[in-house]
Amino acid sequence: MSFFEKRRDFLKFFFLGTVTSLITPHKLLGFVKPFLRKNGNEILGIYGISLDDYPELIPIWGSVRIKIENTLMFYPKVIIVHVPKEEYEVDFIAISERCPHEGYPIKDLDPDLHLFECSGHGTLFDVTGKYVWGPASRDLERLHLEYDGDKTIYLEVPLYPLNKLDEKEDVLAFLNQNKPNPCENYTTIVFGTSEPAEVNILLFDQKGNEVMLVFSGKCISHYNELLLDVSKLSIGNYFLKMIVNGKPFATRKVIIAR
Ligand code: FES
Fold first, then answer.
1. Which residue among 98, 121, 124, 131 has the greatest number of ligand 1 atoms within 8 angstroms of its CB, and so is best to mutate?
2. How far is C-alpha 229 from the chain's CA centre?
3. Which of 38, 96, 176, 208 could form a disulfide with 190 if both were Cys (CB 3.0 to 4.6 A apart)?
4. pTM of the predicted structure, to 2 decimals
């Protein structure tokens, strides 16, 4: 198995897509794991979005917003819209929600005008992301997708520069946001490393006092799931810290509310 293939299996857990509907308040629809492909110097995540799982996309002008989690670089959410094919020559369009003016996210599609409005300074874009009016003066980024004509949309998202996968690089790792969060008495933590590594995961209170050792030892699996009992902790904000081979790796905010 090549180096890329070995890392690819691991990265599937790393780049998780979270899909929410555009219906306000944005409703969580589910999690999508990508298929990974090389594209020059980048890794592309191919996210298979099934219309059976995301019924919001079935009607014309239906849409969903997708957040790609755990990318090492910031990546804005992506909006997919079902458009009338006779007008746009395609069934679905995917655009980045990030306005090219100062980076504010665009609002949901106006249901009558079929325009996006920037939440920052009001620039308007059509459904294909083309600039219409306002201070941005540039189009929204459009992402490539393939529709199989039946039930599945394959959305392509650039995820990771390939040179980051150099053999000499430290072990790759991930710590997902605990779920649910806020939590009452229990919450689930998912983490993993690409190679066996010494991992410590600790929970701190807001003053920086360690309140729990969540995990300590050799992590030998790409994917680990822990159920954390927080029933004895008082309500408030806490911080989960992951340390990999002695180096701080990731922090997640844990909220306990009852
Ligand atoms: S950030 Fe969108 S118009 Fe300014």
1. 121
2. 26
3. 176
4. 0.69
